Amino acid sequence: MKILLLVSAFNGLSQRVYAELRQRNYWVSVEYASTEQQMKEAVALFEPELVICPFLKQAIPRSIWQHYLCWIVHPGIKGDRGPSALDWAIYQQKHYWGVTLVEAAEEYDAGDIWGSQSFKLPKANKSTTYRHQITEAAVELILTALKQLEAKTYKPEPLDYTKHDVKGNWQPLMKQNQRSIDWQQDSTTEILAKLRAAESFPGVKDLINGKAYYLFNAHQEKILNKTRNASPGEIIAQKSQAICRATRDGAIWLTHLKQVSVVEPKIKLPAAEYLADHLQQVPELVDEGLPGFDPATWQDIHYEEDAQVGYLHFNFYNGAMSTGQCYRLLKAYREALERPTQVLVLMGGTDFWANGINLNTIEASPEPGLEAWENLKQINDLVEAILTTENKLTIAALKENAAAGGVMLALACDKVLIREGVILSPYYQHMGLYGSEYWSFNLPRRVGEQQASKLMANCLPLLATEAVKVGLADEVLPSQPKGFLRSLHKVCEWYSHKKTVRQLILRKQQLLRLNQQLKPLKQYREEEEAKMWQCFMAPESAFHQARKQFVYKLPVSAAPSYLAVHRQAALSQHNQQKSA
């Protein structure tokens, strides 16, 4: 079956749907819904049997949905309609929410229903819920509906508000005046609900020191303001470039801001980068030694231990690793190596495992090329430290998606365990980069030279099962978070047994010495960094435009050719064969 994905962006959900369909041998093409004309051209060229819209902000032209079956993933329960579905659910602190697969029709989200699934709504950011509960439910709905479509036994259900299970309704676009925080009146719970509902986009507009900013990535602080009794809204602490603001009954951490500007576009940055001039008198909290898990506060790095296994968590916003974060993570890694354990597990973060260097902090630097260079050297120091660890077995536990340098960071570990459903994007070319993080050593030694070249050139997302098949990962663990952690602990406990771990560490030491003799790690790094220097510094480098496109969310005119099969010569060949 030929399936066209029409998307506003090739986001995590779109990538997951794309990879799941390709794994099941559907012929899939992708097009960005930039304009009506773009969508019409894609349909005319590809002539799909089905159009799926995992993430679509625009309306599908009537000429498409009247002639082609079109499914739209709506992040809401049956009957819910409107562009701010998940925002309202989190804002109103609903206990349950859902996803509905709707057929495109004249009215917005009012077409026939091909399936709906509900879930318990967690106390989490909108982006976290979208990347977990929404994504899992959407994929299951699409795959189930495809089976029903192919069996030709299922009739979709018309939207009928008189039915008892249709509990949603039309909800308008949520505007900033509805999101705004009243620091004097709103409780911590209410403030968190507003901020979580606006996470990723659009953020909550607020004033700090007389300037307007959008606020992002809020976390509750349960200790700091208990005795201080600071004024609501006041910045009472800073830590790792995040700020802590008092509420009338507690406090919250905010890790990122974006300045409101009508003159020139602004980007999300760590809060301290925007507020540096106003934080000199604000107390700065610094972790002494290796920080353990503390549920009373926000942490971007923490460490846990269970018997002979250590677990190092690094929860960086959007998986992006700035120069400073790489430095702090390397420090924590070295301290974790001193612990009396046999196995060290790198856990990554809540929304992403890791995505490599931080393009936003690079773009914001007065010298982006030099900042990119410093960022690269720092992440390479981290990868090198992992590669040359000889006293422990290292494991990457990929419970979330990873991309580019984040994937290569995982490959530096001795073992890679991956949660079912996780997507890996092991390439750099889409960002105009040659790549580093010792990829030229780690990738071929895992998958072979030919497969390594293919992965880097194709720029296509890989499912967890595919990653194991080609050798990027060693084992797939269950998709449900609790099941994943249970399995992870069992596997790590097995690896930590003295005889097993001794053999594995000895083998690792022997292989490392052999590899160093064949070609020193230093040489791989120097070769990669020489090419990356050109990517960062050459005025004509594609990295500069690609970086700006990414950080400023600039519209993309069309999907790249490796996704847009309908624009490839192979399609015309197929059509010729079909008609012959």
- Sheet-strand content, in percent, reads 15-25%
Helical coverage, percent range: 25-40%
Task: Please tally the β strands and state the result.
Answer: 22
Largest sheet: 6 strands, mixed
Number of domains: 3
Named at the architecture level, the CATH assignment of the largest domain is Alpha-Beta Complex
- Supply the number of helical segments: 20
What global shape is seen?
A: globular
Strand order of the largest sheet: 2-1-3-4-5-6
Q: Please, what is the CATH homologous superfamily of the largest domain?
A: 2-enoyl-CoA Hydratase, Chain A, domain 1
Question: Overall pLDDT, averaged?
Answer: 96
Distance between the termini: 19 Å
CATH class of the largest domain: Alpha Beta
CATH fold naming of the largest domain: 2-enoyl-CoA Hydratase, Chain A, domain 1
Domain Formyl transferase C-terminal: 174-259
Domain Formyl transferase N-terminal: 34-145
GO molecular function: catalytic activity
Protein name: Hydrogenase maturation protein
Properties at a glance:
580 residues; alpha/beta; Rossmann fold; 2-enoyl-CoA Hydratase, Chain A, domain 1; six-stranded antiparallel sheet; catalytic activity; Formyl_trans_C; Formyl_transferase-like_C_sf; Formyl_transf_N
SSE diagram, text form:
Layout (H helix, E strand, L loop, with lengths): L1 E6 L4 H12 L3 E6 L3 H11 L3 E4 L8 H4 L4 E5 L10 H7 L4 E8 L9 E8 L5 H26 L24 H4 L8 H10 L6 E5 L2 E11 L13 E5 L2 E6 L2 E10 L9 E2 H5 L25 E6 L2 E6 L8 H15 L5 E6 L3 E3 L4 H6 L3 H20 L5 E6 L2 E3 L1 H7 L3 E5 L3 E3 L13 H9 L1 H10 L3 E2 H7 L4 E3 L3 H15 L2 H21 L2 H17 L4 H10 L17 H11 L1
Parallel strand pairs: 1-2, 1-3, 3-4, 14-15, 15-17, 16-18, 17-19, 18-20, 19-22
Antiparallel strand pairs: 4-5, 5-6, 7-8, 8-11, 9-10, 10-11, 11-12, 13-14, 20-21
Helix pairs in contact: 1-5, 4-7, 9-11, 11-18, 13-14
